[in-house]
Write a structure and sequence with these properties.
This protein is α/β, with parallel strands linked by helices and 331 residues long. The protein folds into 2 domains: 12-64, no CATH class; 73-312, 2-enoyl-CoA Hydratase, Chain A, domain 1 (Alpha-Beta Complex), CATH 3.90.226. It is 20% helix and 21% strand. The N and C termini lie far apart (64 Å).
């Protein structure tokens, strides 16, 4: 089988959709070993696709049909006593994946865990019910999030039930300019209840609710913004985001400096305005090597007691910037 370089100019979602379509239809004339009949070809069977590139001779690539499973939760043990859990998106399996990660980390550490790091950086969001369930997993009581529409009586609230999967151990949540929507709901809930210390850079600011209204058969649908998300203390996420308790700026390579800041919701044309002061985007760079990750290092230090949240708050001229503009809880 000939190895090829990934086509970075073609979105991964598009490539995945093409491969899934080929697998479903048996690959057509380009396939080998395709199943008979009109049904989807079985997994584990081969398929051959042709690749054409500008200025290059076309060639074939042999693939094997498989079900594409996107894992939204990854975890590892840091320094032998810190549970690191990375959530890349909020899918149907996210909360169950985090609960499973917590149990496995407890066993792997021999019951010696000092705390957890929940990494939500560059997580664009996903399912609301999973954001609520994940927040609930770390909270014993209190409101998680509310949704408020134009009319004052049109309010929905979700509250936590008793039970903390972390058993009261400290939690640090990592966010950045790429953390949006469901990620901001989780970070906002844990921050307002003082259940976690939020570290990183200000989040994206996607705090609006869209409703899909069907327009009848063959006429498509209308997506209408109908409400806003609010954190337990009454702060609107929209066009402002979640401000971390401790802001940490990464050291960005020179060749990437022009591409590591997200614009944020407030920079989008036609965005839903915030009731108060709006904030544009922030840094979204995460070093590929964990040893260069300043936010992760600070989280480790906090959980090991090397620093506390007060001493970690940077002084003027230091590596990090204090978050003096962090909004106060609403009355």
């Amino acid at each position: 089988m000939r190895k090829i370089k990934p086509l970075r100019t073609i979105p991964l979602v598009f490539c995945t959709a093409v491969l899934m379509a080929l697998a479903a239809c048996g690959g057509g004339a380009a396939s080998s070993g395709s199943s008979s009949g009109s049904g989807p070809a079985p997994t584990g069977t081969p398929i051959k696709i042709g690749v054409r590139r500008a200025g290059k001779d076309p060639f074939d690539v042999s693939l094997t049909r498989e079900v594409i499973k996107v894992k939204s939760v990854r975890f590892r043990l840091e320094a032998g006593d810190i549970g690191y859990i990375r959530v890349t998106s909020f899918t149907e399996q996210t909360t169950s994946g985090v609960l499973d990660a917590v149990e496995k980390l407890k066993k792997e550490s021999g019951g010696k865990l000092k705390g957890y790091i929940l990494d939500l950086r560059n997580n664009p969001g996903g399912l609301l019910d999973q954001a609520i369930a994940l927040s609930d997993a770390f909270l014993d009581k209190g409101e998680i999030v509310s949704v408020k529409a134009r009319k004052s009586e049109d309010v929905q609230r979700w509250n936590a039930k008793p039970g903390d999967v972390a058993g009261g151990l400290p939690v640090v949540v990592l966010i950045n300019g790429g953390s949006a929507s469901a990620s901001e709901i989780v970070a906002g809930a844990l921050q307002d209840h003082k259940r976690a210390t939020i570290v990183g850079t200000r989040s994206f600011g996607k705090g609006s609710v869209q409703t899909i209204i069907p327009l009848g058969s063959g006429n498509g649908a209308l997506r209408l913004t109908t409400a806003r998300y609010y954190t337990p203390s009454g702060k609107s996420i929209q066009a402002k985001g979640i401000v971390p308790d401790i802001e940490v700026l990464q050291d960005v390579p020179d060749e990437l400096k022009s591409r590591t800041d997200t614009k944020g919701e407030a920079s989008l044309r036609g965005h839903l305005k915030n009731d108060g002061d709006e904030k544009t985007g922030s840094q979204s760079y995460v070093p590929p090597d964990a040893k260069d990750d300043k936010a992760l290092k600070l989280a480790d230090d906090l959980l090991h007691g090397i620093k506390n949240s007060a001493s970690a708050a940077p002084t003027p001229g230091g590596d990090n910037k204090a978050t003096a503009d962090r909004p106060k809880a609403a009355n």
